[in-house]
Design brief:
The protein is of the alpha+beta class and 92 residues long. The protein has one domain. Helices cover 43% and strands 18% of the residues. It has three helices and three strands. A three-stranded antiparallel β-sheet has the order 1-2-3, with no helix packed on it. Strand 1 and strand 2 form a beta hairpin. The chain starts with a helix and ends with a strand.
């Protein structure tokens, strides 16, 4: 594992902890830094960070707090408070 991958993993866990403690601005900054490191090193974000961060406002999404999660035919729809929607397939 490269240094960049380790740093991205660490920032993802820090974002999760900050969001759990209601430090939303700090969590947003951690997500932005993780995205920036991934872009510079041509890496993909970990699936957990990819699915639980908003592409539009970089917020760390917490279902029930700042995100709405709905199941539709064959996919999950996650809607952020900013209005951005993400869709992910699932098999039932």
């Amino acid at each position: 594992m490269t240094i960049a991958e380790e740093r991205i993993e660490r920032l993802a866990s820090l974002a999760s902890d900050a969001a759990a403690d209601c430090y939303d601005d700090r969590a947003r900054e951690y997500v932005r830094r993780a995205r920036r490191i991934a872009e510079r090193n041509r890496l993909s974000l970990p699936r957990k960070l990819e699915r639980f961060s908003c592409d539009a406002c970089d917020a760390y999404l917490r279902p029930g707090k700042n995100a709405r999660v709905r199941l539709q035919d064959g996919h999950v729809v996650v809607t952020c408070d900013c209005g951005n929607q993400s869709r992910y397939p699932y098999e039932s």
